[in-house]
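Comment thread on ticket #2218

A.B. wrote:
> Attaching the input chain for the structure job we discussed in standup.
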Amino acid sequence: MRLRAGGATSRPAPDPRESGGLIGRSHESAALRHLLGAHRLVTVTGFAGIGKSRLADCTLGSWDAPPWRRIVRVRWDADVTGPASLAEAAAAALGAAPGTDPRPADLAALCGAERTLLLLDDVDPVQAECTRLVQQLLMAVPGLRVLVTARRPLGLGEEQVLRLSALPVDVPAGATGPAPAVRLFVERARDSAEELLARDPESARVEEVCRLVEGVPLAIELAADQLDRYSLDDLAARLRQGQGWLTSSYPALRRHQSVRDAVGASYQLCERALRVVWARSSVFTGSFTEASAVAVASGGGIDAQVIPSCLTQLTALGVLRATGDPGGVRRPRYRMTRAAREFGASRLTEAGEYPVAASRRTQHFQQMAAHAGRCWDSGDQLGAVRLVRDEQDDLLATAHHALEHPDPEHTDAALDTIVSVWFWWLAHGHAATGLDLLARLLPLCEPTRPSAVRGTWLAAWLAVDTDPAAARAFLAAAWPGAVLSGDDVTLGRVAHVEGMLALRQGDARAAAAHFADAAELIPAYVPGGPSPAVSLSALALVQAEHSPRAALRAARRAVSWPGVRDDAWANLLANYARARVDAAHGRPGRAWHRARRALDAGAAPPGHPTGPGHTALLHLIAELESGTSARPVPDPLFVPHPRPSHGPLPADTASQHS
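C.D. wrote:
> Ran it. Output below, let me know if you need it in another format.
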């Protein structure tokens, strides 16, 4: 490997309309101007292909009255022979005679009193030498300014860092026209900008392509270069499978001729521990914590203690992106860029470690899902929902991996994971996803397993609204085993689903009987599923207009059920039912105040598990304020109460269970 030295230059600014110009980097260019005007050392950092060198070239080339007289460029290029060290390359660029000893004092003398900007471009492979050289030159030459482009900062005290991120794929607030990433794609495309952007479907496809490559400029340009071989639809379809195949012959640097080469250049700069952590962490689909990385990536010569520092270094390289507040109370999360994840997964597969890493991920998220379930059951429902929301990408990836590689160990663990977070599917608006996973996993697992039994009634509950026939089939599979084993909890939850099905058919009498059975069979504080207060709330809603006294008894039992105050979902259901019963008793004022208090008490940050409850309460409040008797169609988990077709309910339907 060698360095290529560039001499002092004063070439004009590149035209942004030409290939190589800046698109969507006006703010970064202005920030770089400000930093260079006020500081002596500035480093532009970012992941491979993000456009560090282009930003430096275009910003310097378009500067009308810079605070220096000359620019001395030194650029790394692995494909060109030249000086063997950064100091030799800098000496040659400064005009030293061949064979001059590149000592710091000599380099300082070459800089002289003339105001000079030294541009050290793409110097990652010699970063240690670069750090020493820059420090020595800044101390020896007071008028010297240094601009460095590298994938990570030098770490010097006076260094100012400008970190480049990907180009926005969405149009910024207040802006007009296409997003910067879309503009870059169109500019580099073979087709004309006007023709591509004039067609709305094509514009949407361009946006999808840019989103798939995460707005990385190099990947966008390489994708645009494929339009002579693929249509936009075909290009998007291929990119959904991966982007490492993107390649072109026009970039000047060999490592920029494909996405894989660009990412691989960063990989080659890493030490062994960084490479291993990078590869093993590629099994994570979404964001992950330090604890998750330790669980999956430790072992095989990698101590758990070194993984936090590896994550920090990979973040500095741009391989990982830290999300959240780094200085906040909650620990940071990391997300690997898609190109880095694909490259790491390929290295992991080549090393034969992918099955082991995937198995570790499955075990880790099985334990995490179990912990989330315990949090929900113990009253920390907000914490449970936050945990599942943060980890949902990899929870789903665990299930899909088990379906793609149907090994009994994996499928059983995946089913345990899905069932442990029953509340996410049942009470938090993800019923369709949960039902799909359960319907595919249950046939692969032993039906007598506890998680399979729970998964069967859960699938039935989730299917009530969209596929009643499937719900009945799941109930038929769950009922016999529960009867033979005397499993009252399962029988109670099956009874609740039977009540929902009866309600769908308009049979309020049967629905009330089923809900009453469910409330009687399920004990208080039983984990792993909805509280009996949910069934009592459903019973009260069914009886509200036809058996007011029985409905009042059921509603009172619901709001006073043991532990209901620690169950945000069940508590809001119970208060909604009680308010609805008050309205049916001709007390709209009391109903309004109760609904208002329940709504205010249930107010919580985004992600709190009471969203459907808020919706139902808001409908009721609006109905009471307008004085109408309209009945909006509530969420099926709130057990909608259509008008029955079998007449009023007897008043003692619920009293026999009171």
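A.B. wrote:
> Thanks. Noting for the ticket: Residues 1-20, 603-610, 630-658 have pLDDT under 50 and may be disordered.
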